[in-house]
Specification:
6 helices, 209 residues, two-stranded antiparallel sheet, alpha+beta
């Protein structure tokens, strides 16, 4: 059997994708077990698979935030930010013509800052839950609509798979996003053409909550 780096990355990505599915289904214990084993393996063998290392940590942090474990999430994200920064700086020294920092580093930095500010803010010991119902103006609920809360850091690019605040509406058009850190967010909906044909969202796209 081959065991190239590409094979290892593909297997690690598969495990991460499984963990994401478990999280989306509310089965966080199974997701945490996969992520812990995967993260420990990468650290032990000193493997760096680019964005995937950071994505694993951000998903682990999301699980911790759902339990209001802000300090544990901060410690995890900070450690990965340091590791990823060191790795990027080493690559930059070897190839000075490389472009700007990868997006995963920006995400880690933004999450680290959010966690730091939340931990140090008075009365911010508990995270928020953002919920609601997506429906047309005639009251018909919209099913399988993506609902995203996005920070200013993320609002200038398309939604990434590992952004923390994203859910899909259920059969009654309802949604719930847990573990939301204090701050300002842009509300974005992911709609299919048949869901919006002839209908308009009655707020400005750049409004913040």
């Amino acid at each position: 059997l081959r065991n190239t780096k590409a094979d290892q990355i593909e297997l690690a990505q598969f495990k991460y994708d499984r963990a994401m599915i478990f999280v989306s289904q509310g089965e966080e214990e199974q997701a945490e077990q996969i992520l812990t084993e995967l993260g420990d393996s990468l650290l032990k063998e000193n493997k760096y698979f680019g964005d995937l290392n950071g994505q694993i940590v951000l998903l682990q942090a999301k699980i911790l935030l759902n339990r209001n474990e802000l300090k544990a999430a901060y410690k995890l994200v900070e450690a990965e930010f340091v590791r990823s920064t060191e790795h990027w700086n080493n690559k930059k020294e070897m190839s000075p013509d490389m472009g700007g920092r990868p997006s995963i580093l920006e995400q880690l930095a933004a999450t680290k800052k959010q966690l730091h500010d939340s931990i140090n803010a008075t009365g911010a010991d508990k995270l928020s839950v953002y919920s609601g119902t997506i429906m047309r103006s005639d009251g018909v609920p919209l099913i399988n609509v993506g609902v995203f809360l996005r920070t200013a850091q993320d609002s200038n690019h398309s939604v990434l798979d590992n952004e923390p605040y994203q859910v899909v509406t259920d059969a009654n058009g309802r949604f719930m996003i847990t573990g939301v850190l204090p701050g300002s967010y842009q509300l974005v909906l992911g709609l299919e053409y048949e869901q919006i044909s002839g209908w308009a969202w009655p707020i400005k796209y750049n409004e913040w909550i």
